Amino acid sequence: MKAFIYxxxxxxxxxxxxxxxxxxxxxxxxxxLLDLMKLQVETPSALVDINALPYDKIEDTxxxxxxIGALVRNSDLAADSRVRKRYGVLSRALLAGASAQLRNKxxxxxxxxxxxxxxxxxxxxxxxxxxxPGSGCAxxxxxxxxxxxxxxxxxxxxxxxxxxxxxxxxxxxxxxxxNREGEARAIPIADFHLLPGKTxxxxxxxxxxxxxxxxxxxxxxxxxxxxxxxxxxxxxxFALVSVAAIVDTARGRIRSARLAFGGLAxxxxxxxxxxxxxxxxxxxxxxxxxxxxAVLDGARGFGSNDFKIPLTRRTLHGVLxxxxxx
Amino acid sequence: MDEPESxxxxxxxxxxxxxxxxxxxxxxxxxxxxxxxLAAAPVDDSEPPSPAVKIDLQINGRSHSLMLDPRxxxxxxxxxxxxxxxxxxxxxxxQCGACTVLIEGRRINSCLxxxxxxxxxxxxxxxxxxxxxxLHPLQAAFVEHDGFQCxxxxxxxxxxxxxxxxESRSGMPSNVTAxxxxxxxxxxxxxxxxxxxxxxxxxxxxxxxxxxxxxxxEMPT
Lengths: 326, 221
What we know:
Number of strands of chain A: 12
Radius of gyration of chain A: 20 Å
Oligomer: heterodimer
Structural class of chain A: alpha+beta
Shape of chain A: globular
CATH topology of the largest domain in chain B: DNA polymerase, domain 1
Largest interface: A-B, 36 and 48 residues
């Protein structure tokens, strides 16, 4: 681990002012950042510890939604009675991620900002445009079993590893931030994570020094909520494919559907056309297939991850069959 | 190594199955770890050290004040600066659970956090579970059910199980809980396995670990 200056701050504007300095990094749970620092993938010259900030509460909002402080731990969010009752897909996604020890430490804001688990990003002896812009992408022609089939570029095919963010995408969450001037803004989660394009090192729409204060959820949409995660072992593994689905069904017809996918792309993936295929459609495998076709429009495998294309189709069929049964 | 092999005293150390669960001792460490390692720096690269910071920790009920390089993980602080070697370094990346300790009663991976981030907090390690010479019920259950072979993961397993039972009693659901609305999900074998998935045992003593935890879970607290 490279040497750094450690500083604990007690206000958001101080945190933002400290974080704007070159080489500074915010640390909250630290479960991903410290892992990367040990490997010298991350080499901050200053760590700004924000654990003393008052962002550890989950509050009801006047419109019937929830406001989740950026420092709420993943375990506390998953166990919150309101989340379990009204946003089951979020509780399920959180419980499907990492281990209990990590969930006790990992925060809501940090989960959104975690880096990819691409093997080549983690291996500092290999080229990686995300870690070292312009050095190339070793995953393109490498072992790319866990990599993206959607939204990738010729510069980077890494996936975003979060389960939580996939559920939040289905729930139309907004990411609230503050900057050093104390100005707040709310970013729709759809716009929070960026596609790699020519700049895979830029992963979010956060500006320098801007820090996450909370994630807000609008009132839960009608329908049944399901999170299904397909992975290499039954627990404590990243998703190969995951689906966060919220589907409202009545008398054999789907009234509305929301589908967000993890494991497939550089960000939680949602396709409006797929959801439109299901709106007012009968509960029928043909319609499920039309939705899967829309999700997979433009999908491309890179060799080892070709299996994700049929796996996505089958997982979606399974989820839609389950969710429309009740 | 600073210490010649001949100065080790492998024949004089008696390790019983009780010693393993009480202190996290393993034969491998006692015979192979040179004394110099206990005072080792937290990092092995040639970086100039960061300025040391003062850190106060309440560990197993005792106050400790340390001056540490801020890079020092909580695990290294325990093992290398306080000689509390019960907590083990397995993967050092939060993947194996051998380093699990309790912070304010909650289980975490001590390898993936900095000691300085826990200034003023209370830490419980495997060495702090027994009371007045009496094993913690989970320690006793691990002995009774033979919940280990080599013992390297055991202190992490036991600390993790202590945290897990507290979570379970507070109504925490898991990925295999059928109904999220259930305020107190029953601690079935499947629940125990899922909730303990952050602790890997390469000897695969899992059936006995589950049996030990199940027995301890059924005891009154």
